[in-house]
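user: Please review this fold.
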Amino acid sequence: MAQDATVPKLNFGYWLDKAIEWGQATTLESQKDVCLHLPQLQEFLHQLYEAIKHSGSTVAIQQFPLIGQLLGRLCWNPFVIGYDESQKTLMWCLCCLYSSEPQNAVELKANSWIRSLLCHLLSSSKWESNEAETSTFISALGYTSADYYCHLVKNMVVSLVTELRENQVNGLNIQGSVSASRVNAVSIFCVPLITLPDLTPLLETLLLYHGGSSKEILSSEFLEAVNEAFLKKKISLPESAVFSLWLRHLPSLEKATLHLLDQLFSVQLNSLEEVACVMKDSLLPQAASHPAIFRIVNEIFKNALMETDGTSGVMTIIQVFTQLFLQAHQNENKQHKFPLKAYFPYHHQPLVRGLVRRPCELPTTYWSQHLKHISDMLKALVEDTNVSSLTDLFEIWFLVACFGEWLDIAAEQLLKAGVESDAVLWLLAFYYCPKNENQQRTQTMVEAHAVYNHLMMLFSCTELSLKDLEAAVHRITGREQCWNQCLTTHLLTNFLLFSPGGHKIAQECIYHITKTTDTSKEVYNLLIRTTYRFNHSGEENQKTVKLLNELLQKLTLKV
């Protein structure tokens, strides 16, 4: 065998005969012959790849009808796949045979065979499955089986990554670039191997790779598998790769958002710091700096809010997410920062700018004036005759609700500072009762004024009893409408937190309210939001912080 003359270029029949003759190189004679022909074989494989790389699977098979038999036999020869770049070239040849859009059962079966062949090439377990000759070959190279597998995978990944990156400059494909069908095939081949740590650079390169086609070039199976592995913490990827994944595959973004909601609802989180930590770990607030991602996540949150009938827990999650998104947006490089209109394209922009201004960015002495400005703009919008549908009204309400930090401060400012109560009460009344059918909001304003006036009369008292707050408590425990009950609960809870006499009866009063009504979660979420704001605003009030912690400890058991 070793006496063969120089092989003619692309002598397909010659190499097929050789592959059949060698088999899996189980004899000493065949092993020697393989080794003598490896350089020529590699050259042949490279030429074969050049001949078929732009032809597509159908044309390639027409040109070389027995190409599958040849590649299949070579892939099972350990001496061939262990030599230099032969394994990589075999992979690229297989990619050319893969049908990205199979039209019949034959092409589907061929695709399945190609996938299994790649798994064999990269699977150490198959190399180590009692094949003494393979182990002998690996040992002869000075490696253990595990070392050999590790080096082989790393070299393969480096080679593929280099080739993909060299064919893309500044996001544009250059001449001779890898075809979309072959990139698609490589992405499919990665599916069963995604959790291999050595494969991570290739995953990142594929996720950041953009071909010239307007269609997605990576397979949906690959994108789904990467997303699933990332969500389950089986792989770690750079932020840029994760963001690219979500931008190019909407189902993955939707699944990541729903996964985050499941996480937040499946465990008892005792502080908004914990909620914020889980959110940041998901990378969704950071990814939301891209307007397309923000709008989709916001829409999912909106649907979750409607499906849960506007529960305070979901609303609190949305508000924390919005705060984290604003932080990420503000930290963006000015060159890459999108305008606010890109995130809220259909909303009144002056109102958006007013809500986006975070309280910590303004002096506390300016809060009341800013709240009045927001309230006035909102009232003008709501009472505009053009806002006729409930859908329009809901969209305005949801925008305001996302920036709930201002609503909590509104309830605080009513009691702590000299504010124009009508404007601030209207803002709160709109939040708790956005519709004004049958004068509902008007009635809510009347009720809110009555509660507010009563609480202000008692605000300076240092000695209070539950009986003093009987009128306000009755509006919560009595058969009041839900929106009146929630607004009164908000005002009363703030009164207990910030008035001198309220501290002393806070536990008794809140116990009475939550025992006789279903407001436990409402009060709990208000308290953790207040605690979170105190922790991040630098407000120094040790007495109030201590009271908040005591109340939260008691309420945790109820929710």
Remarks:
- The chain has a mean pLDDT of 82.
